[in-house]
Amino acid sequence: MGMPHIERDLKALAARVEQIAAAKALRTMADPVEWTHRLSTVNYELDAWQQDYLRSTAKREILLCSRQVGKSSTSALKAAHIVRGGGLCFCLAPTQRQAALLFRQISDHLVADNAAFTRITQTELELKNGGHAISLGTDRPSGIRGHTLVHPGDAVMLLDEAAFCRDEVWPVIMPFLASAPRARLVLLSTPCGPSGEFHRVWTEGGDDWNRVRVPATECSRISPEFLAQEEMRLGPDLYAQEFMCEFVQPAGAFFSSDLVKSMFDGNSETALAAMFAAE
């Protein structure tokens, strides 16, 4: 066999190897869990709920989670995968500092995956393929008006610690979805009492919402010994709120939130009777 034939065969083999590598990369990119496995920024095994959440394409999703189970870090992976594929992500949180922490994780994952950036600041990044991520703090609602989730690719709005957002935030951010019928909305938080929009969505939001509840006992990285110590330290109510995903009535509240709510739902006579009966 002559040298030209060998060179031709080697080139054909190299091209075939490139095709196989490209096809494997596409398959890996298509599955967010497989994509996560190749990132140097992820040095732990994903729990089952994290894998399900990463693969979920639900348009409306709410995560009720214990402290330190990985709700924010998993959401950053979900957002980074969407942006890496050319999508748009808004990262919102009660303060700009909290939103920046989520945004920093997203950018770190994209750097680890050798994404091609065209622009990156402390609050916004853009990729050559159209991927775009923005972080916004909701502590000044009037300052974040005017955004939209309209985008040629996938789009998602993540609201971290949603139970701690002020009531006036919701009328400002929900119009972001108005002209983007394919966009997704994800609310994630530990509970903060049985009131507010996050509690309402969890308890009354209807079947449109995919609900994910993750108490600390379902996280492989939190030991039973640590939880036993925290239950003794915090007491049953605060422990139930922080680690067991319970909407606990605030200490010192004279009337329960359900009782107060019933007064505004046309059941004032029933509510008053319950108040006097409790005395």
Q: Indicate the proportion of strand residues.
A: 15-25%
Assign the structural class, choosing from mainly alpha, mainly beta, alpha/beta, alpha+beta, or little secondary structure.
Answer: alpha/beta
What is the H/E order?
Answer: HHHEHEHEEEEHEHEHHHH
Care to count the β-strands?
Answer: 8
Low-pLDDT segments: 17-27, 253-257, 259-265
CA gyration radius, whole angstroms: 23 Å
Major sheet strand order: 3-4-5-2-6-7-1-8
**Helical residue percent?**
40-55%
Total helix count?
A: 11
The residue-averaged pLDDT reads 86
Largest β sheet strand count, sense and barrel closure: 8 strands, mixed
* Overall 3D form: globular
Q: What is the end-to-end distance? A: 101 Å
Overall description:
About 8% of the residues have low confidence. The protein is 44% helix and 15% strand. It contains eleven helices and eight strands. It is of the alpha/beta class.
Structure summary:
The chain is built from 11 helices and 8 strands. The protein is of the alpha/beta class and 279 residues long. An 8-stranded mixed beta sheet has the order 3-4-5-2-6-7-1-8, with helices on both faces.
